[in-house]
TrEMBL record:
One Pfam family it belongs to: Metallophos
The family this protein is said to belong to: Belongs to the cyclic nucleotide phosphodiesterase class-III family.
Alphabetic keyword roster: Hydrolase, Iron, Metal-binding
Domain Calcineurin-like phosphoesterase: 3-200
Record protein name field: Metallophosphoesterase
Metal-binding found in the keyword field: yes
Length: 283
């Protein structure tokens, strides 16, 4: 049964520069490489859901490339609001394959692995902090999920941005085409939506659709359910999500189980610090 490891929000900066002035995200990512090599051996694919860098810097992407190259399973990456597609293309192109090409230039992808369909949607809107999925991409998503259902094949959709609000005011933003996106997922309640961007393990439901948001590798967010909440982080332990499809005996139920875990590296838990000097690249 398929198992997918998800990492999100690496926020890697070039060597010598701290993410948001506080976090050695390059050193942090490099320190998890031994764990990542071993973890990849027990899954069918590794997915990185955006905010790979902090401002699209290609030196940062080269550090990411080194850490994710040579794993034993396919690795796929989609951009977040802190990324630049052109930079990802130039440095991390090995991790973008099976493009949907529904909208030229976007990095939407399909990865069919043994026993599962993985759809990766690019929600980046250059210059903006929030995401969208264009109609042309949703048209393709609808077909891909219908096909998977017709073949009784488990399907999972990955995005950087998450379409629901969660109560942390600063992070509760627009999501373009939210209603149509959720209505397509609603037709397939066994499909899991796996997101990032929130820097915290979160589970939400939209009708029968379950949305699992992976914790971040860098800068876990301070939970603050106020209008000003969502603008601070601590140097907590990096985390991951693991999505595993399991069919219950006798056909009682079948679906995705999502585990959240911590990556065993030393961190200080210092903070909270502000997400300052936030960059959403405009190209
Ligand atoms: Fe992020
Ligand atoms: Fe983000």
């Amino acid at each position: 049964m398929p198992t997918i490891l998800q990492l999100s929000d690496l926020h890697v900066e070039p060597r010598g520069r701290l993410a948001f002035g506080r976090c050695d995200s390059a050193g942090l990512l490099e320190s998890i490489r031994p764990w990542l090599v071993q973890a990849a051996e027990k899954v069918d694919a590794v997915v990185v859901t955006g905010d790979i860098g902090c401002d699209g810097n290609e030196d940062a992407y080269r550090i990411v490339k080194d850490v994710f190259t040579g794993l034993s399973v396919p690795v796929r990456m989609i951009p977040g609001n802190h990324d630049r597609r052109v930079g990802i293309e130039a440095v991390l192109g090995d991790f973008i394959e099976g493009r949907l090409e529904a909208v030229p230039g976007r990095q939407d992808q399909l990865l069919d692995i043994e026993g599962a369909r993985i759809v990766l949607l690019d929600t980046l809107q250059p210059g903006k902090h929030w995401g969208e999925v264009p109609d042309a991409v949703l048209d393709r998503l609808e077909v891909l999920l219908d096909e998977a259902a017709a073949q009784a094949k488990p399907a999972i959709v990955f995005t950087h941005h998450t379409p629901l609000h969660c109560g942390m005011g600063v992070m509760d933003e627009d999501f373009g085409n939210r209603k149509r996106f959720l209505s397509i997922l609603a037709k397939h309640p066994s499909v899991r939506l796996a997101t990032g961007h929130m820097h915290r393990a979160i589970v939400q439901s939209a009708g029968a659709t379950l949305i699992a948001t992976a914790p971040s590798v860098a800068c876990p967010i301070a939970i603050d359910l106020t209008p000003k909440g969502g603008d601070e982080f601590r140097l907590e332990t990096p985390g991951f999500a693991l999505h595993h499809w399991k069919a219950e005996p006798e056909g009682v139920a079948a679906g995705w189980t999502t585990f959240f875990g911590l990556i065993p590296v030393q961190t200080s838990f210092a903070g909270p610090f502000r997400f300052k000097d936030v960059v959403n690249p405009t190209e």
